[in-house]
Amino acid sequence: MEQLADNRSPPAWEGRATGGGTAASSPCWSCRGPVGDADYAFCSTCGAVQPPLPITHFQRLGLASGFQIPRDQLDAAYFDQARRLHPDRFATRTPRERQFSQAQAVSLNEAYETLKDPLRCALYLLTLAGRSSIAQERTIRDPTLLMEAMEAREALEEATDLAAVEALAARQRADRDSCLASLQQLFDAGDLDGAEAVTLRLTYLAKLGEDIRLRRMRLAMSA
Ligand SMILES: [Zn+2]
Description:
The protein is an all-alpha fold and 223 residues long. The protein folds into two domains: 13-116, DnaJ domain (Helix Hairpins), CATH 1.10.287.110; 133-222, Up-down Bundle (Monooxygenase), CATH 1.20.1280.20. The chain has helices spanning 13-17, 57-60, 71-84, 95-116, 118-128, 143-158, 162-189, 192-222. Helix 3 (71-84) packs antiparallel against helix 4 (95-116) and helix 7 (162-189) packs antiparallel against helix 8 (192-222). Zinc ion (ZN) is lined by residues 28, 30-31, 33, 43, 45-46, 48.
């Protein structure tokens, strides 16, 4: 299925994020003209900057929904919008326009930071699909994952030199890369149950990566 990769047939959750209506339905605050057809930040009639619409991060960047958007595409979309919202362009405008441009910039940065980080992007896609509980899960319920986490913690505690920690770090990176490859396939196939399970593992691996980093730092300092 190409649901996530095809902009022309947006998945069902796009409607959820826009509150059920279309983003294009909000008129411009300045001239009452239509906003959001091709450009969500500026009025296409008078050019006035608009307050941020409740659209998805993908829509805000003008990108098709999907997991791991190629970095060059993401950067190009972000910098293009960021340039148009640069504070210098609004220095002589009314306080209202300055406020809207700042709010747009905040929303744009949030979109960029979310889509740039694979784990945050996976959690966001699941949230858009109505599976928001996963981000709040604090305990690991999957027995296989629980066992993996316990073993990794033990191995990390027993790693008393940098070489041992580096070996664990290499393993963590390989596991993370394999999770990302699986997630790509699962999101592309619309398999949300599968994507949720792998995202949980990715969450755990991110935490492990942080623990490894701290362990490495402590060993380096005590050496
Ligand atoms: Zn206007």
